[in-house]
């Protein structure tokens, strides 16, 4: 499995870098996980967007879906050379209004997922866990045929259910929008919470993502590392970083 980080900021693009978007590849299968701001530009630098097999969205906040509309136009305007006749875009069905926008005539089709049944997409098996967030959002556990596993927490505040869901992940990508000293109501995790989650889940590698647009990211990593322990590799997301499992 290969994971390329196309964008990693939470909330809004900044510093020339976009928001949540990851290209997940195994064999010749191309899955786009989230489609945030600037995702289509970054995708075009990596593959032909018509070579996508599917898109999957963790939830419908704009920092995860901002480029869905332009991706739909891209497919609409390129009738030839598509990997799939119509691009499937997977999303949760708990928000029917946003789910319906995943349909675009002759370009994309909305497909539902839920946390009861794993989804099989090409070489991937994907299971879901509903997170704690103001709108329905789903963490994903993605395994390919080699048995390698990545877990993506999606947007969430910390809750214990994430530990079991993330157990023994080869790669854990967490929503780490806050430094350790964040006080008050949180709809995202802090660096310390991400580190603790990685340790308790026995994750091999932790990548902090959905990052804040300001502040020292090395401090964010240091705070997470203190909790994650020596057995877990900890880093923050880097633009265009390619992770091979
Ligand atoms: Zn977000
Ligand atoms: Zn969100």
TrEMBL record:
Keyword hit for Zinc: yes
Q: Which UniProt keywords apply?
A: Zinc
Q: Which Pfam families match?
A: Lactamase_B_2
Residue ranges the record marks as coiled coil: none
Q: Which GO molecular function, any one, fits this protein according to its record?
A: 3'-tRNA processing endoribonuclease activity
Q: Which residues form the Metallo-beta-lactamase domain?
A: 18-210
Q: Which PANTHER family match?
A: METALLO-HYDROLASE YHFI-RELATED, ZINC PHOSPHODIESTERASE ELAC PROTEIN 1
Its protein name is: MBL fold metallo-hydrolase
Gene source species? Nicoliella spurrieriana
């Amino acid at each position: 499995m290969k994971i390329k980080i196309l964008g990693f900021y939470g909330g809004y693009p900044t510093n020339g870098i976009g928001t949540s978007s990851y290209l997940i590849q195994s064999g010749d299968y191309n899955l786009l996980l989230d489609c945030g701001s600037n995702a289509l530009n970054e995708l075009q630098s990596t593959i032909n967007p018509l070579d996508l097999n599917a898109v999957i969205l963790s939830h419908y906040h704009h920092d995860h879906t901002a480029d869905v509309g332009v991706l739909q136009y891209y497919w609409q305007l390129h009738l030839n050379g598509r990997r799939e006749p119509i691009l499937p875009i997977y999303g949760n069905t708990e928000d029917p209004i946003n789910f319906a926008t995943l349909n675009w005539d002759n370009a994309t089709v909305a497909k539902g997922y839920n946390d009861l049944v794993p989804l099989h997409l090409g070489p991937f098996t994907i299971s879901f866990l509903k997170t704690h967030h103001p709108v329905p959002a789903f963490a994903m556990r993605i395994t390919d045929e080699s048995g390698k596993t990545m877990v993506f927490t999606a947007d969430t505040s910390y809750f214990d259910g994430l530990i079991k869901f993330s157990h023994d992940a080869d790669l854990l990508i967490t929503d780490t929008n806050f430094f350790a000293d964040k006080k008050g109501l949180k709809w995202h995790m802090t660096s310390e919470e991400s580190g603790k989650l990685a340790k308790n889940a026995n994750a091999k590698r932790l990548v902090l993502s959905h990052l804040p647009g300001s502040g020292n990211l090395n401090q964010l990593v240091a705070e997470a590392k203190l909790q994650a322990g020596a057995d877990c590799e900890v880093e923050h997301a880097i633009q265009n970083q390619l992770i091979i499992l």
